[in-house]
Amino acid sequence: MNASEYTNLEAVEGQHWYYAGKRAIVRWWLTHCGPPRPEQTLLDCGAGTGCFAQEMSAACRVLVLDNHEEALRMLRARFPSDQVIELADGGVPLPDASLDYVTALDVLEHVPDDAAVVRGFTRMVKPGGLVVVTVPAGMMLWSDWDTALQHYRRYSKRQLVALFAARDWQIVHANYTNLAAFLPVWFIRKGRSWLARRHLLHQVRMEDRVPPRWLNAPLKKLFVLTGLTRVPLPFGVSLVLVARRR
Fold first, then answer.
1. Which of 116, 137, 153, 162 lies most in the core, judged by the most C-beta atoms within 10 Å?
2. Is the pLDDT at 207 greater than 80, yes or no?
């Protein structure tokens, strides 16, 4: 992402219903399928500002990985140097089968070869270890937000699941989330794109500001509820996948 996007994210991610809700969903799945213990190790890929990793550091040993200099600057300010991992020769410099947990919160859409990233998970995660992934869903929702964040794609459930080979992974859970927000998000983003093409857009993106509390709280609650449900959802704004290493 551009450096300015990390500044935007840091300003709102603590309270914004989407970012706070996403972290709550991932923490629930880790606890439900784990739970993490102090002697275990979790790698947060694409750790960004380090907000989620800080929340998990009370439960287990946390490593943070990113390849953007602005993110690394923030991570080095928040974590000891031995917990901050940088890519080396395009790969993650960690031993095979050395991790109990890997989280990738809205990361796979940022890389050209997402299958290679998942192969890296396969190499590093111990048998019985857990990966929790979130990604944006539905190419029909593609907008200036995706462009600004340098996304390569938005996913369907089938596309996301296909990255995790059955010989290596047991899919514990894979489902769309944020179903209720789908139509409002579609209208807002398409309307914003229309205005931008006509040079009429001069407002802050809704993702860059926290809604008023009366709206933010129920949006977060609804998002988390759909992120935990096992009822198959036909579509949504996001996807969450939980996979266990065979």
1. 137
2. no
